Amino acid sequence: MTERAANDTEYESLTGEELISRLREAEETLEAIRTGAVDAVVIAGSQGQQVYTLENADRPYRVLVEQMQEGAITLSERGTILYCNERFATLVASPHDSIIGQPLTRYVSVDEGRVLSNMIATGAGPGVSGEFGIVNCLGHEVPVNISLIDLKVDEAMPRLVCGIVTDLTSSRMRTRELSAANERLANEIVERRKTEENLQLTLDAAEMGIWELDLSDNRMRCSLRHDRIFGNATSPVPFDLAALADRFVPEDQHKVREAFETARASGAVEFEHRIRRASDNAVRWVNVKGRTFYDGKRPVRITGVTADITQRREVDEQLRQAQKMEAVGQLTGGIAHDFNNLLMIIGGSLDMLGRRMSGDERVVRLFEAARQAVARGSKLNQQLLAFSRRQNLQIEVVQINDLIPTFEHLLDRAVGETVKTKFVSGTDLWECRTDPHQLETAIVNLAINARDAMPQGGELVIKTANRRVDEAFASRWEASAGEYAMISVGDTGVGMSAEVLAHVFEPFFTTKDVGKGTGLGLSQVYGFAKQSGGFVAVTSAPGRGTVIEVFLRRSTDSVPIVRKPAEATLETGTGVVLVVEDDADVRATTSGMLQDLGYSVLSAATGSAALEIIQANAGLDLVFSDVVMPDGMSGVELARRIGLVRPALPVLLTSGYTAQRAIPELPTGERALLKKPFSHSDLSIAIRKIMASVSAT
Amino acid sequence: MMDSNGAADDTAEFNLRLYVAGQTPKSLAAIANLQKICEENLAGRYKIEVIDLVVSPQLAAGDQIVAIPTLVRRLPPPLKRMIGDLSNSEKVIVGLDLRPIGKSRT
Ligand SMILES: Nc1ncnc2c1ncn2[C@@H]1O[C@H](COP(=O)(O)OP(=O)(O)O)[C@@H](O)[C@H]1O
Ligand SMILES: [Mg+2]
Predict the structure, then answer these.
(1) How far apart are CA A454 and CA A414, in angstroms?
(2) Residue A3 clears pLDDT 50, i.e. is over it
(3) CA A147 – CA A127 distance, rounded (Å)
(4) Is residue B2 in a domain?
(5) What is d(CA A210, CA A216) in angstroms, rounded to the nearest whole number?
(6) Shortest alpha-carbon distance between residue A136 and chain B (Å)
(7) Mean of all residue pLDDT scores within chain A
(8) Fewest CB atoms less than 10 Å from the CB: which of A104, A193, A260, B77?
(9) Does residue A562 surpass a pLDDT of 60?
(10) How many CA atoms lie within 13 A of A487 on its CB side?
């Protein structure tokens, strides 16, 4: 270097004094280099000036520091910036050169500046750091972390401090984003939990169990409620599809498996089948409904709910049954009505024939057979009418216990010797409103069924008791809750299967051979009980006997009405009777019967025709009219009109049909109604009674 | 550039230029020492320019710098220079004639 300076021609133009000064400088330079007072030199080369430092070896570190994403600074002991890298310059948004020599505190707020100065002054030692806000030259605040460390070079040198300034903007942003995301997530979780809780609540309220079927291994996860529906033990048992299918009744199992198999492709499953509940072995109906979830095209799981719908099915079934019974009732009612008219004609004609018959024994036998057939037909018809609840019930307030002797007498003959009959009458039995004749018929029907169920003999128990019926029990039998007097007929016979039980009340339903069963026995019991405001309950199982309970509504009327025994004589009489009847055959038969009894008879086919005759015949003593007539004016209406024009003229109505309300009353307070079909004797008595009461007043 | 602790460019009595080479220890020491000396002796009357020859090596030619750090007194004339880290402040004051106001020249 000295050579270079000496050879430099420009020195030739210098004065001596200048030369000396230069020489001294050169010497000083040399001395400085020698003593280590400098640590870099400048060398002019072909590429211009180049700086060589003693630590050229540090170059890689220098590059690192220059390139790194943290700001790097070197500070004097008093906080002046002696060095900064590019990144720091960018942070404070100033040109690199204008930063050197500035106090670092210039770039932070006054308050923070004090903290920062303190940090520098008290000595960084092995390292301190703190967060500050750098206010850059554009006025923006940049959050940074400044960490400082003392740089000890050698004893002689002043203390230097090195610092790393880390921009926290993006990390702060990320933290903020993260915490925002966290918060969102937390909210979502809370929302979801709420939804789930609500769902759980809803499902619980609906008594629905939840399940999830993993299609990879067919394992199932089920809720507590689900386990309860299946009657599982309280501790959850591991469950899979196969185990689930096995819980269903054998005939439904393959349908269940099939439904789940189909659901993989179809996306949904729904069925109603029967399970056998583990806890009590009861057969229950369940509804299973689910949805398939896919991973792309691959079905991965089916999730759904299960509900025990036995009760709904039962209610549905009851409703269907009730509707069927109603429809059948309508139908049989119609048929029975027509039948009644036919029996009337046959019976009436036979009665008249009988009075004119010769003593030929063979003819008498045939005649008797015909009469008995009519009687039987009429009895069956009564049962049909009873079932369709269109019978005229003679409702009375009855103490059933009082009827037991009558029952004993009847049943002795009905059940035969192999069957032991026992009566258990309840104490203080409530009175009830019913037709005692029909009740007798019902008990006989039940006893005959019991006998048929015990071909090898057994025990028949007739019991009476007071019963308070609750809503649940009543609804099973299409009845209403309340207080009832109950009479039951129990046997130790073969019992009934569920299939038979489902149909027992239907008319013509019988399991007995042709000629042995009519299928009308229980129909009568059912219809009669309903019509008198009660109901019938059946308890039976195959091999376990049968108990049929007839519930009759408790009556609070105080005095029982005593029945009068019917006489079977022909009461002849005199007078003029007008017969009003739309059916020509019945009209002719009835007229014939009345004539036989000694009455003069006029007849009319309609109510209006009858009114004309009444106007024209002042000598008329009685009008005998059918209630149901197709031309518009009913017997009841006719009676009302007669009451307007000839109040003194008595009217006797006849009907085989529904219980009529507006039946005119006789002066004695009885209703003037003759039940169809009526025998010659029934007719004679009814007419005589009216004639007698009229003449009495 | 560094122009701290002193008066505005044109009015500064002492115009000092320090040539450094990045952050070699001597460079850093020189900056720190100079600052301290000026503040103590020339408060309000000086201007320091720090020239990093690592960043702009061509600036070395102007003042014929060969060793770093070198301090050049540009104002007041005559041009004076001092080589080294300026750790001997007495020597600096004498060498550059950084006579504080009111103090007589030694
Ligand atoms: N006590 C009973 N035990 C077993 N089965 C009975 C009993 N009562 C009724 N049943 C069944 O109900 C059916 C209908 O009875 P019912 O209406 O009286 O008609 P029928 O006795 O003419 O068959 C009977 O055929 C029988 O299968
Ligand atoms: Mg029967």
Answers:
(1) 13
(2) no
(3) 7
(4) no
(5) 19
(6) 18
(7) 83
(8) B77
(9) no
(10) 30
- Of the listed ligands, the closest to the CA of A505 is 1
Pocket test for ligand 1, best of A443, A446, A459, A504 (most atoms within 8 A of CB): A504
Domain carrying residue B57: 14-95
Where does A277-393 have alpha helices with state H?
310-355, 361-387
Would you give the DSSP letter of residue B14?
A: E
Domain assignment present for residue B100? The answer is no
Identify the top-confidence range among A17-21, A605-609, A693-697. A605-609
pLDDT at A603: 92
Rounded CA gap, A151 and A120, in Å?
12
- Specify which residues B14 forms β-bridges with: B46
**Domains in chain B: how many in total?**
1
Tell whether the torsion through CA atoms of A502, A505, A509 and A514 is positive or negative. Answer: positive
Antiparallel, parallel or unpaired: β A622-626 and A651-655: parallel
Q: Could you tell me if residue B23 is inside a domain? A: yes
ipTM attached to this prediction: 0.78
| pLDDT higher than threshold 80 for residue A558 | no
> Each residue of A538-550: pLDDT tens digit?
999 999 999 999 9
Q: In what order do the strands lie in the sheet with A71-76?
A: A81-84, A71-76, A160-167, A141-151, A128-135
| 3-state helix/strand/coil string of A143-199 | EEEEEEEEECCCCCCCCEEEEEEEECHHHHHHHHHHHHHHHHHHHHHHHHHHHHHHH
Task: State the Cα–Cα distance between residues A548 and A489, nearest whole angstrom.
Answer: 5
How does pLDDT run across B66-97, given as a tens digit for each residue? 888 889 988 887 888 888 888 888 888 888 77
Q: Which one of B4, B28, B39, B70 would you mutate to disrupt binding with A, by most A Cβ within 10 Å of its Cβ?
A: B28
pLDDT grade for B27, boundaries at 50, 70 and 90: confident
The alpha-carbon gap from A33 to the nearest alpha carbon of chain B, in Å, equals 7
Q: What is the CATH number of the domain that holds B65?
A: 3.40.30.10
Question: What tokens were used for A522?
Answer: 């229980």
Ramachandran class of A439: left when φ > 0, alpha when ψ lies in -120 to 50, beta otherwise: alpha
Q: Do B65 and A97 touch (CB under 8 A)?
A: no
Integer Cα distance of A225 and A207 in angstroms: 7
Asked if the model's pLDDT at residue B6 lies above 50, the reply is: no
Q: What is the identity of the amino acid at A484?
A: Y
Would you say residue B1 lies in a domain?
no
Strands (E), A237-282: 239-240, 268-276
Q: Which domains does chain A have, with CATH numbers?
A: 1-67 (no CATH), 71-168 (3.30.450.20), 201-308 (3.30.450.20), 396-553 (3.30.565.10), 576-696 (3.40.50.2300)
Rama region for A313: left / alpha / beta (φ>0; ψ in -120 to 50; rest):
alpha
Q: Are A37 and B1 inside 8 Å of each other by CB?
A: no
Rg (CA), chain B: 13
pLDDT band at A289 (very low <50, low <70, confident <90, very high): very high
Question: Hey, which bits of A470-522 come out as E strands?
Answer: 482-491
Percentage with pLDDT > 70 across chain A = 89
Q: How far is CA A193 from the centre of its chain?
A: 25
Residues A603-617: b if buried by 16+ CB within 10 A, e if exposed: bbbbbeebbeebeee
Q: Measuring CA to CA, which residue among A602, A634, A630 is closest to residue A615? A: A602
Name the one residue in this structure whose structure tokens are 């109505």. Answer: A653
> What does the alpha-carbon distance between residue A101 and residue A85 come to, in Å, rounded to a whole number?
14
**Among B93, B100, B85, B84, which Cα is nearest to B29's?**
B85
Neighbour-count burial of B11, counting CB atoms closer than 10 A to its CB (0-12 exposed, 13-18 middle, 19+ buried): exposed
Could you tell me the sign of the dihedral formed by the alpha carbons of A515, A517, A520, A521, in that order? positive
First to last CA, chain B: 32
Nearest CA in chain B to A41: B67
| Span between the terminal Cα atoms of chain A, in Å | 169
